[in-house]
Structure formats: C-alpha cells, structure tokens
Amino acid sequence: MDEDSNFVHHSASNLTIIWAAIASVGWYILAVAVGLFFASPYIKEKYINWRTKKDEEEYYAKYHKNPDLFEERLTAVEAARRKMQDKYNEQAEIAKQKEEERKELKRQQLLKLTSNLNNGNKLGIADDGSSSSSSSSSKLRNDYNPLMGDTNRGYKPPKRSCCGKKCG
Question: Residue 160 gets which letter from DSSP?
C-alpha cells in the first residue's frame, strides 16, 4: 500500500515538473507551431525543388558514365510506346467494327419497321376494305378536325380592358 501511494506521488511530481517546463515556454511553442503552419507551403516547395534537382543530377551522372544504359532505356521506352500504340489501334479497330455493326443493326431495324407500315393508307382503314371502317368514316363530318374541337363551345379569352387610366 505504501508502494502505491509512493508511485502516485512520484508520477504526480513528474507531471508537475513537465507541466512547469511547458508553461514557462508555452507561448514560444505556440508561436513556433503557428510559424511552421504558415511556412510549410514554402518549405514544401523548396524541398520538392531540391529533390528534383538532386534526382536530375543523379540521372545525368548515371547515364553520362554509361551511355549503353541510356540507349537501353530509350529502347525500352520506345518498345513500351509501340506496345501501347498497337493496343490502342486494336481497341480502336474493335470499337469501329462495333459501331458499324450497331449502325447496320439500326438500319435493318428501320427498314423492317418501314416495310411493316401500311404505305399510303389512312389510320383505321384496313387493306381488305371492310365495311365497318367505311361506315365509321361516314359518321364523321367532312370538315371535322379533332384537334380543333367543337366550334360552338370553345374557350374564349376575356376581353381586354383598359388599365383604368384612360389609356385607350
């Protein structure tokens, strides 16, 4: 039991020592953190530039010493480009064939649809000339247009009146 209380007392004293150190320089730590936050984009840009320059120097040193390595790399890059171009050409050819097939199918469907239509016949009149359709057409008036509606019960807009200021 005495050992547990000693541990708590000992850890509390360490905590107070650490807290006292932080409290004495806390504003400085905060100022440095804010400064790093605002300077980080500038520092990052400088680091990237430095890293790029270092990589380029290593690249030039490596390939300047051994020109065969440079030729091998160029050959490999050219082979990769050729392979990618061939793959693209194959895909383009396949896409072109599919597009032509789709257009041909669409054209066939259109021809099939137009061949099934009754060319030159009115709607409701069959090719065999049945009497039921002729009797229904006699029921309709010659001047009847279903889009016009009945002429004696149509909508009539209200009359325009003057705005009340003797404008007309």
Answer: P
**DSSP state letters, 62-99:** HHHH-HHHHHHHHHHHHHHHHHHHHHHHHHHHHHHHHH
Alpha helices in the chain (DSSP H): 2-65, 67-116, 131-139
Q: Report DSSP state, residue 126.
A: -
pLDDT by residue (tens digit) across 101-148?
Answer: 999 999 999 998 888 775 666 666 655 545 444 555 556 667 666 676
Query: Measured between alpha carbons, how far is 18 from 101 in angstroms, rounded to an integer?
Result: 79
Half-sphere exposure of 103 (CA within 13 A, CB side): 6
Return the domain boundaries, the chain: 10-50, 66-113
pLDDT digits (tens, 9 = 90+) for 2-26: 555 555 566 678 888 888 888 888 8
What is the residue whose two structure tokens read 């009797």? 135
pTM of the full structure: 0.35
